[in-house]
Amino acid sequence: MTEYEKMLAGQWYNPLDAELRQLRLKSRENCTKYNSTGASHHKQRRLLLAELLGTVGQQLFIEPPFFCDYGKHIHVGDNVFFNFNCVLLDVATITIGNNAFFGPAVQLYTVNHPLDAVTRRTGIEQANPITIGDDVWLGGGVIVCPGVTIGNRAVVAAGAVVTQDLAADGLYGGNPAKLIRMLNN
Bridge-partner residues for 102, per DSSP? Predict the structure, then answer.
């Protein structure tokens, strides 16, 4: 099994593998191109996103700068907006539903490292997918940790750290994010 196959299977893998390094390099080059486009370059941005991301829905808008690890593991639905300075570490798949809004500096982390210091020194990593439902709004500075699913119509307050799954139709906040109240959607 290749390191790339291990990575996608959620197993421990070596991120310094030559194939993985090449894939990340291509993604970083595409992010650099995207981030250097002007505000009126909508067509060029759309083409770059189609090359960078796995799936690009209709009406996707990402304010530069935008950063990701691989890009091709990110699947975005229709009518999605990312504000400035978002980071998506798509070592595992990130799936985003329709009508999702991301405030500035939102960070989605699929990658994890060993808790044991000796094992961590080996450099191995593991990743778990993130799923964001339809009509979700993540406020500015929200961090979503590996393996999390956020249900449809959930709202996560600015600065929250999401460490576990969030149910649909709730307002969440804090570190770690907890239910504040249910929403009437």
Answer: 82, 138
